[in-house]
Amino acid sequence: MGALGGTITMEAVAGRGGVVPTLSAESLVASIPELALVARISTTTLSKLPGASLSAQDVLAAVDWAMAEVDGGAAGVVVAQGTDTLEETAYLADLYWNRPEPLVFTGAMRPPGQPSADGPANLVAACRVAACEPGRDAGVLVVLNDEIHRARAVRKDHSTALGAFSSPVAGPAGSLIEGRVTLHRQPVARARLERPTSDPYVPILETHIGDDGATLRAVRKAGARGVTIAAFGVGHVSASMAAEIEKTARDIPVVVGSRTRAGGTLRHTYGFEGSEMDLTKRGAILSGTLDHRKSRILLWALLASGMSTPEVRASFDDIAASGPLPCGTNHGDGG
Fold first, then answer.
1. Catalytic site residues (predicted)?
2. How many helices (H) and strands (E) does the chain have?
């Protein structure tokens, strides 16, 4: 088990006015006797950071560590971290995880010192999933509140509730009942990407009523290598914003997703200026059911691997859909 920090590792510290990440992976595991009944667990403290301060490099370092663990004989790996960014970090890890053994992310909504702290139960459940045969070849999974989610589908939907995580489009991939792990779906083919060679600036912009594209112009001038737009409804923006997207897409990839909780973008329904069909004609890439946060992660990863804008356009749809890479491309060893 590797610990990155987050609420699951936080305690009150004199003079700080609130809880901060202090617990090591070793002390966290030692505080949960039930874990000894699940598996033989080794521990590594990878960092002591709140989830909001994690970077892509922190996640990739955790993936490297996890690969070394399974190469050394581990049946599975659990990473505990802050829930603020868990939906993004888990998907980023999933783009690179190329081992059959389970890699499971978990965390907590309440710190250890609070009544009914959920960290211990989440960590036990995550270890059960990581140690179980059904978890093999499933890619990166997220386990909290006795629910199992695929990294691609999971979202944090509530800021404080114990049941904060859900998979709005696909539903949970499985559950734990009385400690028994059940996966509802068979593993799907997943693309694995080449490791990053750069750290491109790729922001998310959420459109809004009266958006004339000023913010998009600003980030383009600031050197953005790609942009993800959280658009209205099924992928709509104002006519002024559509014109700015067309200018931007001539030089860098622009991915358009939906700012709604579920449903994603359409492709062939609306034809007005600023609609999904119009934006496609203007050069935008539609994200489909991949939400805008994960669309940004995928766009960043593609650009970070050295892909050009045409290569991003050719690969985004297939990878976003969790399917195999298009014939004739090879962005990873497939594990």
1. 7
2. 9, 16
Residues 6+ apart with CB under 8 A from 236: 270, 274, 275, 276
Cα 313 from chain centroid? 21
Backbone angles phi, psi at 4, to 5 degrees: -100, -15
For residue range 20-46, what is the model confidence (pLDDT) as tens digits?
999 999 999 999 999 999 999 999 999
Q: What are φ and ψ of residue 110, in 5° steps? A: -125, 135
- Give strand ranges (E) for the chain: 2-5, 10-12, 19-21, 44-49, 77-80, 103-106, 140-144, 147-150, 155-156, 165-166, 174-177, 180-183, 204-206, 227-231, 254-258, 285-286
Domain annotation for the chain: domains and CATH numbers: 2-183 (3.40.50.1170), 204-320 (3.40.50.40)
Tokens of 42: 């080794």
Shortest CA distance to 118 belongs to which of 165, 152, 154, 61? 165
User: What would the two tokens of residue 214 be?
Assistant: 């000023």
pTM of the model: 0.93
Catalytic residues: 7
Which position has the token pair 């190329």?
98
